[in-house]
Amino acid sequence: MLDKTGIAKRIAKEVKDGYYVNLGIGIPTLVANYVRNDIQVEFQSENGVLGMGPFPYEGEEDADIINAGKQTITTLPGASFFDSSMSFSMIRGQHVDLTILGAMEVAENGDIANWKIPGKMVKGMGGAMDLVASAENIIVAMMHTNKAGESKLLKECSLPLTGVGCVKKIVTNLAVIEVTDKGFKLLERAPGISVEEIQKATEGHLIVEGEIPEMQL
């Protein structure tokens, strides 16, 4: 089973040379720490940063340089800062190659719910709606089940939707899963996790074909 760092390391393998990548709040922010050193990647944050680097070491933080989750970050040579209108022009104009988001629920048809739990106060949807409406390649980083042990990979989302039919791939603490027109397709399983455990933790339709390899981190 993976922890949050393991999920981020596995997603980092999906990042290709020359990509412009938007990192959502939570687990996705860790991905910048694990991208290969031999490729060139530009990380974008919707609060107006292009060229984010890894998190700073303790004692080297600059409180003026933050990501969309208000965490202190580093920037790489050539990084730029700009206002929200330009940032969302990049997103809405489909200039981002890969979007990595967290989620509370994902449905087997690719619907995503990641912004609101009814009855709990939220400050707003933020940039999530723009990201899922504009991005053509969305990977979700999430835990496979909630704290009660209930599946978060569902037949249909029960929470208010952020986007419809937009998720392409999901990396959880148990598995790597592709969203297809026939449901969730199991691609890889986390070290020490069996196919049966993944099936038990997945409410939506799970397609299992042939031998399922373990993830390589």
Describe the overall structure.
Helix content is 14%, strand content 24%. It is of the alpha/beta class. It has 4 helices and 13 strands.
Give short descriptive properties of this protein:
single chain; 217 residues; alpha/beta; 10-stranded mixed beta sheet; 3-stranded mixed beta sheet; 4 helices; 14% helix
* Assembly context of the chains: single chain
The helix/strand series, from N terminus to C terminus, equals: HEEEEHEEEHEEEEEHE
Radius of gyration: 17 Å
**Per DSSP, what share of the residues sits in E-state strands of 2 or more residues?**
15-25%
Largest sheet: 10 strands, mixed
Main structural class: alpha/beta
The parts where pLDDT drops under 50 for at least 5 residues are none
Number of separate strands: 13
The end-to-end span amounts to 12 Å
Helix content: 10-25%
Discrete helix count: 4
Side-by-side strand order of the widest sheet: 4-3-2-1-5-8-10-11-12-13
What would you call the shape?
globular
Q: What is the residue-averaged pLDDT? A: 91
SSE diagram, text form:
Layout: H1 4-12, E1 20-23, E2 42-45, E3 49-52, E4 75-81, H2 84-92, E5 98-102, E6 105-107, E7 112-113, H3 128-134, E8 138-141, E9 153-154, E10 169-171, E11 175-180, E12 183-189, H4 195-200, E13 206-207
